[in-house]
Design brief:
6-stranded parallel beta sheet; 5-stranded parallel beta sheet; 11 strands; about 325 residues; about 45% helix; 14 helices; alpha/beta
Length: about 325
Amino acid sequence: MPSWSLYSILRKVHIKHAAPLAYLDAYTSDIPALYTQQDFEKALQAAGFGKRKQWQSFLSGSLVHHTRRILGRMARNIRSGSGSSLLCLMMGPAAFRLVPDGILNRCSLHCWDTWPENFVRWDSLFMRFRTEVTFFTSTQARDRFQARFPSMRCHWIPDGSSPELHVPDKPLTGRRIDVLEVGRRYDRYHDAISTCLVRMKAVHLFEQPPGQIVFSDRDALIQGLADSRIVVCFPSSITIPARAAIETITPRYFEAMASGCLIVGHCPADLKQLFGYNPVIEADMDNAAGQIGEIIRNIESYKPLVEKNLTTIKGHTWLHRAIAIRRILEAQNLAD
């Protein structure tokens, strides 16, 4: 056997066994924006990823955070070699998350919030940390960064769900909340349906004022979804026009479906591609009030769609996403 061939085999075996996959744990306080990350971390552990603690210091939290932010703007990866054994979950281009771990390790990155206003910061981060493998929650983001960095391996890993956390059992006709708007609000649609819902004496919950959360904690959110008939969902590309270039599936779509709710709003193209059908009732912006009233009056007729969504969502859990990432990273490390 030629020596180069033997070397190649030994190198692959070494990479496979010497660098077990791990993820860099995140700061996941109990706020709605980070529920998604908490669920994903649990799935990564279930999929066999080890957990590496973030670097700690005896200094005060605010001082450490400020120092890492400064270092994050200047730092770059210094490790030679290949292989991405450490996965870092990035809520935006927060380079300080990679200090010092991204300096000393070749990290693969799972990227949320890749909005146009942050493209320059993402570009800088990928270049400085010599990122080899990235996972994006939007196909448009994946395509944009793949074109920008041809040698970087970009993959689409959409958000997932934790169906076991949700309670879909109550029939639509027995639920107390007629329409729920939770999270970022699409004011044009909200204004169009509000008067109609007041006239119908429908129970309509939403942020009052915008930015004030509807439910106090996660348990309340889960119970609120379980008691809601209709959940309004529009992607950020619609609610914030400056983000129109990147359309993504927010976790709220999955949470609503897993709770047995009917979704009214807009179906992102990625979601339709993922499911093979449109699981959303598309909002009629020319007759939003009439449409929502008609849906409420005939809510039982949407039971088949709700049940179809409940069945489909079981194949799109966070564990499915974690296993997909593990397979990609293992294949990548063997190929290097």
